[in-house]
Hints:
Layout: E1 3-16, E2 19-32, E3 36-40, H1 47-54, E4 62-67, E5 70-71, H2 77-87, E6 88-92, H3 103-108, H4 118-131, H5 147-159, E7 165-169, H6 177-194, E8 197-201, H7 205-208, E9 213-218, E10 221-227
Parallel strand pairs: 3-8, 3-9, 6-7, 7-8
Antiparallel strand pairs: 1-2, 1-4, 4-5, 9-10
Helix pairs in contact: 5-6
Amino acid sequence: MGTMIRTKGLKKIYRVGSEKVVALAGIDLEIEQGEICCIVGQSGSGKSTLLNMLAGLEKPTKGTIAIAGKMVTSMDEERLALFRQENLGFVFQSYNLLPQLTAVENAALPLMFSGMGKAQRERRAMDELSKIGLEDRAAHRPSEMSGGQQQRVGIARAFVPRPKVIFADEPTGNLDTHTTEQVMEAMLDRVAKYGITLVMVTHEPTLAACGDRVVTLSDGKVISNEYRKKPGGGEAESDDKFISNEARKKPGGGEAESDDNDSEEAI
């Protein structure tokens, strides 16, 4: 299928007063086209920071990110905004629906700058809403829908433009167990149908089990990179070759040295 996302030496360092806080400590990662990659780790491990870096929502202190063969980290803000619009989708924990718009209008938003007419945009959005069981809520505003219904609208919005990659940050964090199952079923069904790469941050083991691969972070480093199944089905064993150098141990103990001797500066 080919590599959809590749990072090399990805670092993020924040300044807090006179202190440096290392959020990401050199991440080397490859994610294949059509793969469901779940990123897990304790609070403060760097998983949401990594997702933001991959999605182009934050710039790394150092390192590179390539998506669909394009070097995202070398793009200026204008090019990056256009790239996100044409290639990326987002599912947020807090839904992020516009309160004044109906469900179908919210779902159609990503197509607003595509050159597609309003009627065509809303037909595409209505088709997605229908497939996840929300056709009877199409004219409702967010305040008139439950949390699970709002999140399904958010999923429809992410899939309407048929992006190459969808990033999901704790997409079921505010939902009960039954609604979580409904939302995940809807999202995984759309990923499989369109062959979209899904990168999802979660702290729920049951959600991580849905992934083709589970990447575990600790202190900004990849400590485990486990393939549970191949993209498209089939079992696969874990592959340590993608674990970052910083997470490896020398024989007999101690940290492996990094070959990166450049100085680091926070953005």
